[in-house]
Design brief:
By secondary structure, the protein is an alpha+beta fold. 50% of the residues lie in helices and 10% in strands. Strands 1-2-3-4-5 form a 5-stranded antiparallel β-sheet, sandwiched between helices. Strands 13-12-14-15-16 form a 5-stranded mixed β-sheet, with helices on both faces. Residues 105-110, 445-471 and 614-619 have low confidence and may be disordered.
Length: 619
């Protein structure tokens, strides 16, 4: 049975029951900027925030990629939902129950392909089957005992949806009973195809860690061997599929993203077990990459959520080497502040929790952060005999090279003092050597800043500086933009324009929006942009209205302003067209060297300009 259309009053109730900022802040780190909030756009990569959210208007807009709309549109764009699905998701966020007759059916159409939806459903079914085997069958008992012995509770297993893939083939039989399409099984990454075209299960005798995307949907697996086998990898990950790209995914980001914003930082761990051990200890802002260095996509995902990244890798030599490499990588790839959480005694986070308890790790996570420079200074001491003068000189030289990368003299001075105190060296000598190193560093190219030109001699219409201003827009269209904004937001302006005989906008888009607004206001007491966007039938019209909405204008309109707009629209439009035509003819006459015609057209153009300056009539 197909779902019923959600009534308009239900949609409005859901939309007005949430603050768009609260919803979007679950996906984007927002900071107050004037009357709006700004953040990094979730729809494309950028270094400077251009994504804006207006609480007053309950809309979002990216000044870079142009996407914008209300809270429903945000979820449609981000998650590929249909409109009804977005309404249901916002209702869930607001704690509103929508009548079951409006609930999503399996026939709901989304922007996501049918194939991808099937692959996600297949992974969801596999997750449930693997977890059932782990928790409820004799086949999974050994794996369950292993996890319990590692300190994992049943609650942890449920939270992270951990399961077990036995030696016996169960997944293929399970899907065969469902009569799933061979091609979907083949593309899922859960099976390996032999030369004959037969499928066999990829994961055998492994503890299964589901890999979820940022929306909490399982899109892949990582299987850990239950027993060591020198011929097999300890961890086996799903291959890349239409729904899984390891460059985009961070383990546990879906659960951690809210805590990351609350804590103001994210902790990057090496492995899944470390993330889970930290989570069990109350440190819930941890994530892990998929066994590789952080990618640009993963870095950008974190940058949208926080400005502070803390690395918490193993305390042994390989872990510290990995930390140093990560710091070198991140230095040039992120604007996040980067720190290090050092695990003492060469332990990894999971071992530390097991030996010292949850409270000890919770304390470490909040109090044991080292700066990048502090870590580097300690790291460079490893395997050195600092009682040897040659080793001392080499160490101090390398540390000064690190300090030369610091941009603030105050911070440099702190570490110079530490070096001087530790090795009893004159600070002046160290500072001079540091100055020389800084002077010899290659300079970063300065970004060219284009000055903003603001005219002060323009009549009322041109005094409004539009965010989406296009130099190709002529005086008439600028008047149309301003007037349409006024009539939508000011009932007095609306009534005045309705009373003007034979008034119409020159350009079709403006007239169409004006006409649609008449129908909208017949159904609503007043204009609200967030609601009006849902009323518009086409995506192009929605984007057009967003441009109008983002104009920066004074709060109140005046009669002179309205008169000026109407006069320009009704009187200047034919004059503008005539001026453009004469200018075109004049250019052609000049090119042909026709002096007589050039003079004639010049006088005609002057006359048109003079006519354009005639004082405006009142409404």
């Amino acid at each position: 049975m197909a779902r019923m259309r959600i009534p308009e009053n239900v949609i409005e109730h859901v939309r007005t029951s949430v603050n768009i900022t609260d919803v979007i802040s679950q996906y984007v780190g927002l900071k107050k900027s004037g009357s709006n909030f700004m953040g990094l756009c979730p729809f494309h990569e950028e270094k400077t925030p251009s994504f804006s959210v207006s609480e007053e208007k309950q809309i979002f807009h990216c000044f870079s990629c142009g996407r914008g709309g209300n809270v429903f549109k945000f979820l449609i764009e981000l998650d590929g939902l249909s409109f009804p699905e977005s309404v249901n998701k916002v209702a869930e966020f607001a704690g509103i129950e929508i009548d079951s007759k409006y609930a999503q059916s399996q026939l709901a159409k989304t922007q996501e392909s049918t194939e991808n939806r099937q692959l996600k459903q297949l992974h969801d079914d596999a997750t449930k089957l693997y977890q059932h085997i782990l928790m409820n069958t004799e086949m999974g008992q050994k794996a369950l005992d292993y996890l319990h012995n590692r300190g994992m509770t049943d609650e942890d297993i449920t939270t992270f949806q951990i399961g077990f893939a036995p030696e016996k083939s169960v997944l293929q039989d399970f899907f065969n009973e469902k009569k799933l399409d061979y091609q979907i099984l083949r593309q899922s990454g859960l099976f390996i195809e032999n030369q004959a075209g037969n499928l066999r299960e990829r994961f055998i005798n492994r503890v299964m860690f589901p890999i979820r995307n940022q929306n909490g949907q399982v899109v892949a697996f990582s299987g850990r061997l239950l027993e060591k086998n020198k011929d097999l990898p300890k961890y086996l990950n799903s291959p890349e599929t239409p729904i899984f790209n390891k460059r985009d995914i961070l383990f546990n980001y879906d659960l951690a993203k809210k805590e990351i914003r609350t804590e103001g930082n994210v902790i990057l761990f090496e492995g899944f077990m470390d993330v889970i051990a930290a989570y069990r200890s109350g440190v819930k802002n941890g994530v892990a990459s998929m066994g590789t260095s952080l990618t640009n996509e993963q870095i950008y995902l974190l940058e949208r959520s926080t400005s502070q990244l803390n690395i918490c890798y193993d305390g042994d030599d390989p872990g510290q080497n990995a930390t140093n490499r990560a710091l070198d990588l991140l230095t040039n790839q992120t604007k996040m502040k980067v720190g290090v959480l050092v695990i003492p005694n060469g332990m990894d986070p999971d071992e530390f929790v097991t030996k010292n308890g949850k409270e000890a790790f919770l304390e470490l996570a909040h109090s044991a952060r080292e700066t990048t420079i502090s870590f580097k200074m300690n790291f460079l001491k490893r395997d050195r005999n600092l009682k040897n003068e040659s080793e001392q000189i080499d160490y101090i030289d390398q540390v000064l090279r690190v300090l030369a990368t610091i941009k603030t003299p105050f911070e440099q001075d702190i570490y110079v003092n530490q070096l001087a105190d530790e090795f009893k060296i004159d600070k002046t000598i160290l500072r001079q050597q540091l100055v020389d190193l800084v002077a010899n560093q290659p300079r970063e190219p300065q970004q060219r800043v284009n000055p903003v030109r603001v005219r002060t001699d323009e009549p009322p219409i041109e005094q409004h500086q539009e965010i989406m201003r296009d130099e190709k827009i002529d005086r008439v269209e600028r008047a149309e933009r301003l007037l349409l904004y006024r009539v939508l937001h000011d009932q007095t302006a609306w009534l005045k324009i309705r009373a003007v005989d034979d008034f119409s906008f020159v350009h079709d888009n403006y007239q169409l929006i004006y006409t649609l607004a008449e129908g909208y206001l017949d159904l609503h007491d007043q204009y609200e942009i967030a609601s009006f966007l849902d009323y518009l039938p086409e995506e192009a019209l929605k984007r057009f209205v967003m441009q109008i909405e983002l104009m920066t204008v004074s709060d109140n309109s005046s009669e002179d302003e309205l008169n000026d707009c109407v006069s320009v629209i009704m009187n200047d439009s034919p004059i503008e067209r005539s001026i453009n035509q004469v200018r075109s003819d004049l250019a052609e006459a000049t090119r042909l060297g026709n002096t007589e015609l050039t003079n004639e057209l010049s006088f005609k153009l002057i006359a048109l300009y003079q006519k354009q300056q005639v004082p405006r009539t009142s409404i």
